[in-house]
Amino acid sequence: MTQSRSSAGAEMHPSPPAASPAGPPVRPKERFLVFGAPRIEDAEIEEVAASLRSGWLGSGPKVARLERDFAAYKGAPHAVAVHSCTAALHLSILAAGIRPGDEVITTALTFCATVNAILHAGATPVVVDVDPRTMNLDPAAAEAAITPRTRAILPVHFAGRPCDMDALCALAERRGLALVEDCAHAIETEHRGRKAGTFGDFGCFSFYVTKNMTTGEGGMVLARREEDAARIKVLALHGMSKDAWKRFGDEGFKHYSVVACGFKYNMMDLQAALGIHQLGRVEAWWQRRRELWARYDEAFADLPLERPAAPEPDTRHAFHLYTLLVDEARAGVSRDRFLERMTREGIGVGVHYLSVPEHPYYQETFGWRPEATPNAMRIGRQTVSIPLSAALSDADAADVITAVRRAMN
Ligand SMILES: Cc1ncc(COP(=O)(O)O)c(C=O)c1O
């Protein structure tokens, strides 16, 4: 079983994988390489145990520390920890003042949460196509989609590759639009020396279990303005006045006021206990994924597969996903057959992502069609993500490479 929601394994192979015609699998069932497996070390385990022993499990001082540490890592003025990136996106859109009837432009190549967050805020998502090379929101397509009702642009730094922030910031500025960055893949990402999540009004991060650092479930919002960060903090905890989480502390009960109809989106100290130590290793793990990326690039150079484009000059790619495009006409194997063969070889794989308009809900509700965003449609139908976690050993990476080569035959 894989814990990646977007991994193909569990959904597409309900029955146990059959033995490979090429002989025994690269990895037997008991050593199945889970896609996006987190790397958890002793310090995290001890910190979680300390939280449990302290009796303070909910939002508290460890959350406050993770917020401070993350803001310092990003060089951002304000950080608010929440329960997920989905919550971060939802609250950012609300704090940006976006209202029902307003339109928010985003990419067709993203996880459903990006679009759902816009819908949760009551706004109307407008999905546009991506650049076929970078897989990121195409600024020209975004500009062409602007209407008098457009209020915001919500780019996703896909796979950890920064969007063209020069073009997107200029567009937002010129047209008076809010900019909310979906940085779920982009903790270490930079564009011309500036860190992802600090370009826009809000930057939203995910600490889901497969992400570059994890708190199990978790997320963070970076806000440019103090009043926006304060608004998000209030909305994340039922709409109770700031610092309401301290009400059960040792300074005696504190009354709070409910000042908005908020949500239950707060992060727990138990989660932050993991995050504090994960953040401390985020750069070392980035280096490890960079090595794995280079190794894959070299190993697959002779295969009839499209590898990820090299990072653009003067940028820093977060190396969150390594995606191969399997074009059946060229590769001699369909994408879904390739996924099946990788699973049979004992390697967990993912699909990031079928383009948003492929899903029935959006087709039935909005009449969206995949053909309207052809680059995202093609990528979504050809893409396969292979394991790229810092938890991978050299031997694991060698198994992934062998499995990919075998899946091509
Ligand atoms: C691009 C993108 N945006 C948003 C999310 C939502 O993140 P979370 O699971 O933390 O809500 C994800 C998670 O996979 C994602 O990949």
Essential attributes:
disordered N terminus; 409 residues; three-stranded antiparallel beta sheet; 15 helices; seven-stranded mixed beta sheet; globular; binds pyridoxal-5'-phosphate; alpha/beta
Descriptive notes:
This protein is α/β, with parallel strands linked by helices and 409 residues long. Helices cover 38% and strands 12% of the residues. It has 15 helices and twelve strands. The strands form three sheets. The protein has a seven-stranded mixed β-sheet, sandwiched between helices. Strands 7-6-10 form a three-stranded antiparallel β-sheet, with no helix packed on it. Strands 11-12 form a two-stranded antiparallel ribbon. The longest helix has 18 residues, at 282-299. Bound molecules: pyridoxal-5'-phosphate. Pyridoxal-5'-phosphate binds next to helix 4 and helix 5.
Question: Secondary-structure map with pairings?
Answer:
Blueprint: H1 8-12, H2 42-54, H3 61-74, E1 78-82, H4 85-95, E2 103-107, H5 112-120, E3 124-128, H6 139-144, E4 150-154, H7 165-175, E5 178-182, E6 190-191, E7 194-195, E8 202-206, E9 219-223, H8 226-236, H9 269-280, H10 282-299, E10 315-316, E11 322-325, H11 328-331, H12 335-344, H13 360-366, H14 374-382, E12 383-386, H15 394-407
Parallel strand pairs: 2-3, 2-4, 4-5, 5-8
Antiparallel strand pairs: 1-9, 6-7, 6-10, 8-9, 11-12
This protein binds pyridoxal-5'-phosphate.
Residues 84-86, 110-111, 113-114, 156, 182, 184-185, 206, 208, 219 line the site of pyridoxal-5'-phosphate.
